[in-house]
Amino acid sequence: MDSISKSRLQWRWQEPADQASDQTLPLHLDNLELRFETIDKDALQSEKAKKTYEDIAAAFARRRAPPGPSRGDPLRWDDTFRLESRIGCLLRGDRLRQEIASRLRWAISDNVAQAIALQNTYAELLKTNDSKPADELLRDFLLELMEAIHWHSKRKHMSRKMRGQATRRTLLIGLLALLVALWPYFVLPSTVQINPRQASLWFLRIADSAVTEPSSGNDFWIHFALYTGLTFGFLGALFSRLITLQTQWSAMALDELSNARSYHYIVLRASIGILGALVVYFFLQSGLVEGSVFPKFKELSMNTLSFGDSAAPRWPTRLTLPSLNLALLIMWSFIAGFSESLVPTVLSNTERQFAGATRPRS
Predict the structure, then answer these.
(1) Could you tell me if residue 154 is left (phi over 0), alpha (psi between -120 and 50 degrees) or otherwise beta?
(2) pTM score over 0.90
């Protein structure tokens, strides 16, 4: 495989955030080199400043060199940040103050966390010095300002990259969980003889443990209600994680985002939804709450309706729908996995009711 094919393969497997940054990096380097060329080397006073100037010029010369061993590794964003800070150290006088003002405006417009504090610090720095502050103090402040801007840019890029990985992996696990949850709804109706007009396939009857099963004769689907509750609780937790990644990623710490993209962390967080759905499942079955919004476990079924009519043909001719109580169980299980506050609220309310029932009467 030649170098061109390797580079294309590498680009193909890059993260979208990496692709976007690679496209804007050359433009940023061109602007940085143009600003560097406005600095007069002869006006530099110290030998250290002249040595810094030569190092920066050599870095830009290697960038313009033709491909080969003399060119070296390409400049990346970290190298650009380093060059930008070193160029700031070469500025002095009004040019230095203009650079600080420009960087402060950029920090505020880009919502850098320390932008307001740095602006106040700069105002105090100008106020405490009746005459103009020394260039050394201004350079130190410029380096602090650039450090805040560079870290903000680096963090934003890393956060976007991690969020993309976490979202794709959560969606992948969610797709597999969805297939597991919906599998019996597609497989089991085809194994049962359906009445041409209307028939009901009962998966579970809690009262007498009578179950209509496939011809294999196994007893697995006796626990179909529990299977439904746990799988949809898992789906609800994954859906909650996806919403969190899309709405709160900018406020999440880097370590939290790094954990959010690992498969074991996604499964671990989604397993909390299984536990929540399990608690809600037994809570609903206990009969502590009753009403039209709560499922009746003796009436869980899948109803297959036939719409065939020779006079007015329809498509599809049959339609399999969950019963009202099965749909309620699915929704409560999904909500139990989605809402992290539902189960604690249910448990705390039940605890208060239990404490009131066991309190001795005066």
Answers:
(1) alpha
(2) no
